[in-house]
Design brief:
Length: 588
């Protein structure tokens, strides 16, 4: 990387003419004290870190929202949109706060609040300009306030030109921009010396001249601006550079910056407020907790509106954002219908292991306005089962892990092709289309064995159990993962009281949380089960109930002492049921 240098005077001459801010930058946040400390650092010869710029190509300018630097800061003031037609544009990626502070110190003003007045009171704020007291000796201790801040030079913001006397002679800092050459500096020093109070000493006159020379050096002679200019045309590369370069202040992620760029091109209201508000709605207002994020919502926009599914800022062109905004209501509706359906199946933040796996379902519902898959029609029932089976297989087999963009694009192509054949969810076509590079897209014998190793409270456990129940009328009912033989029956203390040997106790404890000792029960039924003895509960179950939950009629196994054998027997029945669903013979 090759760095260049510039004087502050020459750089400021181009601010808001060549140098501008991109939409990804956050607002100006420095205080008046920080502005003073920056100038004081420069006067002392301290480095102020490097800057990073981006030379924007002409054809990319129309895709970017570009802003001017603030010169006159006031509370709540936003950077104005810049007019960049016909200009060569350089955007500041790293150094916004410092460069804005230089603007304010040398070309603008800073509004400060009067003590004891409310922030909301317009009269509480006074516009002030930065001045330098030429009679302040940087080598001598200053006022207490300056000492606390580490300020050596007499720098102050004033609302009006302060009065001069034998102790203070104030010079408006920005006036130095009018004295670029040595000849101009000489004339400035001569005039200033002639204006000094008659009580000023010879030492102070030398101090005035040396302070003005030092200020002139800082602004016009020393190349204090050390910068690197990025010339890449890739917005995504620039965003990545920006994230890595901005390691101070508030941390921003690449998606935060993308959100800022999208917001800058959104016409009605604020894209940020729309997206964040919708995320909160899905996560907190559907009765079941979900865990979507802004990245999922924005990626959904690309998928549903037919754009490249890769989550890069280059895909959020001006045209794309206009299309997304035009379809925003329908996008939100499809996502909400999707999550209401998933929640009705018991799928929520607790067990939804891949948000990307949801996207094909959302696309399907986006193209079927009004369909909820939760109705009583034959279409709803059949397609709800198909969608559920496909999603559970996809989540359990990790279909959307790894190269998910390629998988999402293939799924969308498959759904588009299936549109011409009817409204049904193309379950089988998706299994086949997503079997990329020999990937398994539905359960096979090995996967079934891996599921049988799942234990209580694991993310996939609920999903695996859901596959066992074709006849559940979910209907919004909350289902619990329940231990068939209760945990408290397999407690070490209880087992020791039965005089069981240690190796048997270990076997029982190791079996109690296994998938084959777990079932799905409606919340109310689970509570009722816990309120009576297990013997009374299990003997009172019907044959149909036991068949549904894959519990053999082998009463001798319905005890904690026989739990390992119970788990082994039920695992056999689970293999049979899952194998029948994928058309494979059971391995006993």
């Amino acid at each position: 990387m090759s760095y260049s240098t510039s004087t502050i005077g020459h750089l400021l001459a181009d601010v808001n003419h060549r140098y501008f801010l991109p939409a990804i930058q956050r607002p100006y946040v420095w205080t008046a004290d920080q502005v003073v400390m920056l100038i004081d650092s420069l006067m002392k010869g301290y480095p102020i870190s490097s800057f990073m710029f981006w030379a924007v190509e002409e054809d990319l300018k129309k895709e970017l929202r570009i802003y001017n630097f603030i010169e006159h800061w006031q509370p709540g003031k936003q950077n104005p949109v810049a007019s960049t037609d016909g200009r060569n544009i350089i955007l500041v990626l790293d150094g916004q706060q410092r460069l804005t502070s230089l603007q304010i110190a040398l070309r603008g003003s800073f509004a400060e609040k009067a003590k004891y007045k409310r922030h909301s009171n317009p009269d509480a704020w006074t516009e002030k300009t930065l001045y330098l007291d030429l009679l302040t000796d940087a080598e001598e201790p200053g006022e207490e306030e300056d000492i606390d801040l580490g300020i050596s030079y007499g720098l102050r913001f004033h609302a009006h030109t302060p009065r001069n006397d034998y102790r203070h002679h104030w010079f408006r800092l920005g006036d130095i921009l009018n004295y670029a050459s040595e000849e101009q500096l000489y004339a400035l020093i001569s005039r200033t010396l002639a204006e000094l109070h008659q009580g000023v000493t010879p030492f102070q006159r030398d101090l005035v001249a040396s302070t003005l020379r030092r200020l002139h050096e800082v602004i016009w002679i020393e190349e204090n601006i050390n910068y690197y200019t990025e010339t890449a045309g890739s917005v995504d590369r620039v965003l990545d550079i920006f994230v890595r370069a901005n390691d101070g202040g508030v941390k921003l992620s690449k998606s935060d910056l993308m959100m800022s760029m999208i917001t800058s091109k959104w016409h009605e209201g604020s894209a940020r407020d729309e997206v964040f508000g919708f995320v909160d709605h899905i996560n907190k207002s559907l009765g079941v907790p979900n865990a979507i994020n802004k990245d999922f919502v924005l990626k959904s926009c690309l998928v549903l509106c037919g754009f490249d599914v890769k989550y890069n800022v280059s895909n959020f062109t001006t045209e794309a954002i206009r299309t997304i905004e035009r379809n925003w209501a329908a996008i939100k509706d499809a996502i909400e219908r999707t999550f209401r359906f998933l929640n009705s199946l018991g799928i929520s933040k607790e067990n939804l292991s891949s948000l990307n796996a949801v996207l094909p379902i959302t696309w399907y519902l986006f193209h079927l306005p009004g369909v909820t898959l939760r109705g009583s029609s034959e279409f709803d029932r059949q397609n709800a089962r198909a969608v559920q089976r496909w999603l559970l297989n996809s989540l359990l087999m990790g279909v959307f892990a790894g190269t998910s963009d390629r998988t999402i694009a293939r799924a969308r192509d498959t759904l588009i092709a299936a549109q011409g054949m009817g409204r049904d969810f193309p379950e089988e076509q998706l299994y086949d289309a997503l079997a990329l590079g020999g990937r398994q897209t539905r359960l096979d014998e090995r996967a079934i064995e891996e599921l049988l190793e799942l234990k209580y409270r694991k993310t996939k456990t609920f999903l695996a159990l859901s596959l066992l129940y074709d006849d559940i009328d979910w209907g919004g009912t909350t289902y619990h993962v329940d231990h068939i033989i209760p945990q408290d029956h397999a407690n070490r203390r209880v087992l020791m009281a039965r005089n069981l040997p240690e190796h048997r106790i270990q076997e029982i404890i190791g079996a109690v949380d296994r998938l084959a000792n777990l079932q799905l029960l409606p919340a109310q039924e689970n509570m009722e089960k816990g309120a009576i003895s297990f013997d009374a509960w299990i003997t009172g179950r019907s044959d149909a109930y036991r068949d549904r939950h894959l519990i053999s009629y082998k009463p001798d196994l319905w005890t904690a002492a026989q739990l390992p054998e119970f788990v082994q027997d039920r695992a056999r029945l689970i293999r049979q049921r899952l194998s029948s669903k994928v058309g494979r013979e059971t391995v006993e």
